[in-house]
Amino acid sequence: MIHSLSAETIAPLDQPEDDGGLSLVQFERMFTEVRNQPAWRARADNEMEYVDGNQLDSEVLRRQAAIGMPPAIEPLIGPAIEAVLGLEAKTRTDWRLTADGLDGDDVADALNEKLNHAERQSGADKACSDAFKTQCCVGIGWVEVMRETDPFKPFPYRCEAVHRNEIFWDFLSKKPDLSDARYLVRRRWADIDQAKLMFKSHAELIDRAAGRWTDRYELSTDGGTSTDMGRAWDEQRGSSIEEQEWMDSENGRVCLFEVWYRRWIEVVVLRSQDGRVEEYDEANEMHNEALATGATQPQRAIIAKMRRAYWMGPHKLHDGPTPYPHQNFPYAPFIGHREDRTGVPFGLVRGMVYLQDNVNSAISKIRWGLSAIRTERTRGAVAYTDEVFRQQIARPDADIILNAEHMATPGAKFEVFRDFQLNEQQYKMLMDARLGIERASGISSSFAGQRGTATSGVQETTQIEQATQSLASLMDQFKYGRTKVGELLLSLIIEDMIGKPEIVTIRGNAVLPDRDVAINQPVTDETGATMLTNDVSRTRLKVALNDVPSTPSFRTQQLAAMSEAFKAMPPQYQDVALPHLLSLMDIPNKQEIIQAIQEAKSQPSPEQVQAEWERGYKDRELLARYNPEKLAAEVKKLTAEAVETGIKSAFGAVQAGQLIAQMPQIAPVADVVMQNAGYQLPTPAGVDPNFPQPNIAVPPGPVNPGDTSPQTPTDPTSQQGGAVVGANMGINTMREDSVPA
Q1: Which carries the bigger pLDDT value, residue 169 or residue 215?
Q2: What is the pLDDT of residue 56?
Q3: What are residue 303's DSSP bridge partners?
Q4: Which three-class secondary structure state does DSSP give residue 147?
């Protein structure tokens, strides 16, 4: 494999013998690789000229002027590209952070608020849009994510689009984010004074090199000169880097090369149980403790370390590790399409250039044919020279003087022909070239906002959808590059937040209120150790793009769909959905309106007030009719009466039982009396009161079929049936205890 990390395949550029940084030999080897890369930048520049409308070069214009053909340009590539750029602006999405775990949601929400704020303030959207234009046209675009070096700028981070001709990278890289690339070089011209301020320790070297080692500097002097300057002179004289590639002494400018390169080294890493991997640091006590307790497992690995160097031609001005927390290039690539064999990037314009030339040439030929004049004459027929005659015949007010003597001779001829009719074949060729641009790019007229071949709204929508589908691969690559920009920007945000307690306010919307999230708050556990809650350095996050676009046009579509759904909702659901509907509207004082609506919802409606009043009136009427004190007294009375009735019933039952026990023969008579009075057996049967019964045998008495009334016994003189005895033993006895003597 080309990029195997085995010792046999690692190039000296990737695995230096020392750690002194990038040597001049290695830097020159980069230049050699760049020179031997496939040539594509000049063609890309020409394609961008077609996008800008500069489609006729000086040679074509000279040849057209020689034959009198007027230059004609019908720019069709530019509007087609603008339609694609409009698709990106219309479907623009926001970054959204998701926590790679169950306990990082609060940190993800806080960092998401920070990232969205950085997206607006750092110019990330504009930079990505500018990079997408060149990605769409020529297949490559770049966005740099850096810290703001100007302290007077309001925001600490900056995102800028970088021109493609400033960046050179390892063409052997295969990954779209260049994570396997060995180097990336950015070349940029700067004034000598600016370069001297950037690298003050090399100010003398910059002056001498830019001045071609003149001005009172004697190289031939034996001693008394700077040894560093002498070594720099030798390096410049023996370098293979041409002087014109990095020095412009006439204009006082030098070209600085910012070189980002990877160095592969072997390190020991610690892998924790939750999957986190960190490089082992001997000075870190937590790492040593984790190794001693067996909480982590050491493992040897070959990793890449990012470094940065600045070169001015063959002179190295700086070399050191990357100043960023990540091990990636600070440049996010936006790659459109790449050739399979060479890896050369290309875009949509490549297939449209030839058809654009056909359109321009066809229009020029048609216009030239409509204004062209063809003459047939014998020599000497006009009284001018040939050059003067051609100038006169081409004028709209041509005045041709013929030679009378020559025209009088037999065979003399002078005829003028004008062809004002458009050639049908030329017109068909022109129309085919116009339609060919749509076929080559996949961008229909309807997609570009022009009148197309659709005869109904459904057909036009279908054509727009088909054009969008043809751009799916390009948009997917753009999404990948934009996500890379978000990751680079997030790494800077996390680095500045590590170890700093902060309260992040997550802004709500028209429906949800604001809330605060505490980040990096120190707490002490049971063992007395201090740790941080919601530690951003220990939360594993990943950046994703929100599926919901945030453009005004999409919010308008959401508002239309929500309005239709709101109309079909029942009234009780409309009260709930109204704040959400208003949140989609771009109206002034939207927050105040929604707050007033929510406050009004908490107050009762007139119908509810009327119902409440009627309910209160009925309660008062019932209260007046049924006084609680009166009801309580009546309840007590009924309770007392029930107790009294129960006591009387029990008392009567005891007396009846006593009488029946003394005279069992009266029981059948009592049953008949009760039945005649309407008594019925209870259903279900009653409950036994369980009265105590004496253990006394009842003697059987004589059965007397005569008069059974106790007041008139059969034998009034008898002691067992006399009136005195009956009075003392009847149901209604004369004593209070009803106990017989």
Answers
A1: 169
A2: 86
A3: 265
A4: strand
What are the phi and psi torsion angles at 381 (to 5°)? -75, -25
Whether the predicted pLDDT of 502 surpasses 60: yes
Closest CA to 405 of 383, 374, 373: 383
Q: How far apart are CA 379 and CA 388, in angstroms?
A: 14
Rg (CA), the chain: 53
Residues 6+ away with beta carbon under 8 Å from 118: 124, 155, 157, 489, 493
Q: Give the integer Cα–Cα distance in Å for 210 and 241.
A: 15
Tell me phi and psi for residue 729, to 5 degrees.
-120, 10
What's CA 515's distance to the chain center, in Å? Answer: 20
At 275-298, the pLDDT tens digits run 778 888 888 888 888 888 878 888
Site of tokens 């802004």: 507
428: phi then psi, degrees, rounded to nearest 5: -65, -40
- Kindly tell me the burial class for residue 157, based on how many C-beta atoms sit within 10 Å of its own C-beta (0-12, 13-18, 19 or more): buried
Whole-angstrom Cα distance, residue 383 to residue 406?
10
What's the rounded mean pLDDT across residues 533-558? 61
* Burial class of residue 121, CB neighbours in 10 A (0-12, 13-18, 19+): middle
Question: How distant is the alpha carbon of residue 673 from its chain centre?
Answer: 97
| Start-to-end C-alpha separation, the chain | 131
What distance in Å separates the CA atoms of residue 112 and residue 95, rounded to the nearest whole number? 8
pLDDT at 457 over 70: no
Separation of alpha carbons 380 and 395, rounded Å: 21
Written in H, E and C, the secondary structure of 464-475 is: HHHHHHHCHHHH
Q: Which of 111, 180, 169, 186 lies closest to 489, judged by CA?
A: 111
Closest by CA to 651, choosing from 738, 710, 728, 740, is 738
Q: How far apart are CA 625 and CA 619, in angstroms?
A: 10
Separation of alpha carbons 709 and 699, rounded Å: 20
Residues in the chain: 741
* Residue 620 structure tokens: 């008062």
Q: Is 126 in contact with 517 (CB distance < 8 Å)?
A: no
Backbone angles phi, psi at 545, to 5 degrees: -95, 135
The predicted model scores a pTM of 0.68
d(Cα 625, Cα 613) in Å, to the nearest integer? 18
For residue 124, give every residue at least 6 positions away whose Cβ sits within 8 Å of its Cβ, in sequence order, or none. 118, 143, 145, 159, 485, 486, 489
Are 64 and 364 spatial neighbours (Cβ–Cβ below 8 Å)? yes
Assign residue 123 a region (left: φ > 0; alpha: ψ between -120 and 50; beta: otherwise).
left
Other CB atoms within a 10 A radius of the CB of residue 113 amount to 16
CA dist 211 → 208, 217, 219, 236, 253 (Å): 5, 10, 14, 13, 10
Please write the tens of the pLDDT for every residue from 648-669: 877 777 777 777 777 777 777 7
Residues forming beta bridges with residue 723, ordered by sequence position:
none
- DSSP assignment of 21-33 equals ---HHHHHHHHHH
Residue with tokens 């800077």: 492
